[in-house]
Amino acid sequence: MALSPMSLIPSYLSHLFSATHRSLTPQLVIIARFLALLTLLHHYFPFPFRTPFFTFLITEEIPYNLITRYVMWMGCLLVLLTKHVRLGTAACGLSLWVGLLLCRSCHSNAHMYLASIFLVISCSNSLTKNRLLQAQVIILYLGAFLVKVIDPDWWNGNYFETLMIRRHHLAWYSKVAALFSGQLFSAFMGIFVIVIELLIPILLLRKKWWHYGLAIALTFHTVMIIMMNITFGPFYFSLAASYLIFIRHFANFSLHNNFLHRYPNFGRFLLGDIKVSTTESAKLQTSFAANTRFSGYFALVFTLVRTPLAWYSFALLTWFFHPMNCIIIGHLLLLPYYLYLLRRWFLNQLKFRRTLIP
Amino acid sequence: MSKVSIQCITPLIGGLYLMIQLFSSIYICFTPTKFFFWAPHTTQVSYQLSAEVNGKDLSNRALIQRYNLRKKGWEAHAIENVKQQIIFHEQYIGFNDSVNLTLTYSVNGKAPQKWHYPQ
Question: Is the CB of A51 less than 8 angstroms away from the CB of B37?
Answer without folding.
Answer: no
